[in-house]
Design brief:
alpha/beta, Aminopeptidase, six-stranded mixed β-sheet, 19% strand, EC 3.4.19.3
Length: 221
């Protein structure tokens, strides 16, 4: 199929007490399940380092030119699969795996304080919770001001909002890697449906506008 959708999904390497990072385990499980024939899925593991993220993300967006990039991270506080609505630019004081944090404590000097995803996470959350995937999903507006939030903001900035971030709980608290992989698959498929819907609506609005102008000209002739 020539018009395959390209989706990039990332997880993080181990850090701190997360000696096995549930996010990367879940992403590998998603890769095994796939997103269906019409989607070309590329996965990668992201270092828990600000400077590595800064160099990796632009190349991911440029090389793959994806319709959507979904970053997955682990949160010790999460008990559900959590969809993050926005990324934040400032407040990065916590040291990464290399004991580094940005001197400016922000992602990009020129960006807004907060960028929202073009995706309506509440709508996606409802769809997945109404399905029989068997994993609880919730929505958050604070991705934590560490590498998760930093990565999310950077991707939203680079991809003009066509990015998403999903926090997963640590393995076994309460979900298995298979549960998390299945939940990610359901979440990303809903995200793609919503993007498709948004595109159709935009085209429809554009066409209506063109017809409207055409009719006006016609009326005056």
């Amino acid at each position: 199929m020539a018009n395959k959708k390209k989706v990039v999904v990332t997880g993080f390497e181990p850090f701190g007490e997360h000696t096995v990072n549930a996010s990367w385990v879940a992403v590998q499980e998603l890769e095994r399940l796939g997103l269906g024939e019409a989607v070309d899925l590329y996965v990668c593991e992201v270092p828990v380092e600000y400077q590595a993220v800064e160099s990796l993300l632009p190349s991911l967006w440029k090389q793959h030119q994806p319709q959507l990039v979904v970053h997955v991270g682990v949160s010790g506080l999460a008990t559900t699969v959590t969809l993050e609505q926005c990324g934040h630019n400032k407040g990065y004081k916590r040291l990464d795996n290399c004991n580094f944090c940005p001197a400016s404590q922000c992602c990009t000097e020129t960006g807004p304080d907060c960028i929202n995803s073009v995706l309506d996470m509440d709508a996606i959350c409802k769809k997945v919770n109404d399905s029989d995937v068997g994993v609880a999903v919730s929505v958050s507006k604070d991705a934590g001001r560490y590498l998760c939030d930093y990565t999310y903001y950077s991707s939203l900035y680079l991809g003009h909002g066509h990015a998403a971030f999903v926090h997963v709980p640590p393995l076994g608290k309460p979900y298995s890697s298979q549960d998390l992989g299945r939940a990610l698959q359901a979440v990303v498929q809903e995200m793609l449906k919503l993007l498709e819907l948004n595109n159709t609506e935009e085209e429809h609005t554009h066409n209506e506008h063109c017809n409207h102008k055409h009719q006006q000209q016609h009326a005056h002739s």
